Amino acid sequence: MELTPEIRTAAQVIWDFHHVNHSLDSADAIWVLCSHDLRVADRAVELLEQKLASRIIFSGGFGNFTDGVFDKPEADLFAERALELGVPETAIIRENQSTNCGENVICTQRIIRELDLRIESVIAVQKPYMERRTFATIRKQWPEMKLCVTSPQLSFGDYCTDEIPMEKVIGIMVGDFQRVVEYPRLGFQIEQEVSADAERAYEFLVNEGFAWHLMKG
Question: In this structure, is residue 216 part of a structural domain?
Fold first, then answer.
């Protein structure tokens, strides 16, 4: 598919919408919601090195884009990346059973209880286009948790790579936009304000064929 200037412009609007642009404060833990993109682990290590927290929780088993692709659960591969970057094992907690954003919350809550940890504030780290959905999910399912959300500090153009091409990113972003709109009605997330510009960009991209990651049914 040719990525015309109009497609790229609409995609930038959706990319910007998905960012929540939180200012970061010190927290009890850095909580990584794992995925196919190990740069999210790199961002978590940056925050640890900045002493914004003293431990990292890696949460993720096999999800939509890693099941049948990764040979280990996401959390284990992310933890290995952190260890390679110098994070001590004692600073790492692994939750490697969850398969989606909602399960990240449920399974992480269970691990925290099992380890008898006092964690009342977190910096959640995600892919850039998953910031808003992550915030909305955690705020709904764990409302008492003090929360801010961040992601790798990359522009839309710089984020896309040969392994994660722009066409794929646009399709995922379009599907996640739909979930931000629809999931509150299903009880999965808090409701988010959606601008008319973002709605128009979404509809344009769906009509241009970026519909493969939309919800089924």
Answer: no
- Torsion over CA of 43, 134, 94 and 119, rounded to 10 degrees? 100
The full DSSP string for 148-217 is: EEE-----HHHH--SSS-HHHHHHHHHHHHHHHHHHHHHTSS------HHHHHHHHHHHHTT--TTSPP-
User: Do the domain assignments include residue 138?
Assistant: yes
Residues 109 and 178 in one domain: no
What is the tens place of the pLDDT at every residue in 45-79? 999 999 999 999 999 998 777 777 777 999 999 99
Residues 67 and 170 in one domain: no
Largest Cα span, the chain: 52
Last residue of a domain, one of 150, 166, 182: 150
Whether the model clears a pTM of 0.90, i.e. scores above it, the answer is yes
Asked if residue 33 is part of any domain, the answer here is yes
Enumerate residues 6+ apart whose C-beta is below 8 A from 27.
52, 53, 121, 122, 123, 146, 148
User: What percent of the chain is predicted at pLDDT more than 90?
Assistant: 90
Does residue 217 lie within any of the structural domains?
no
Compute the half-sphere exposure of residue 22: CA atoms within 13 Å on the CB side of its CA: 22
In total, how many domains does the chain have? 2
Residues of the chain with pLDDT under 50: none
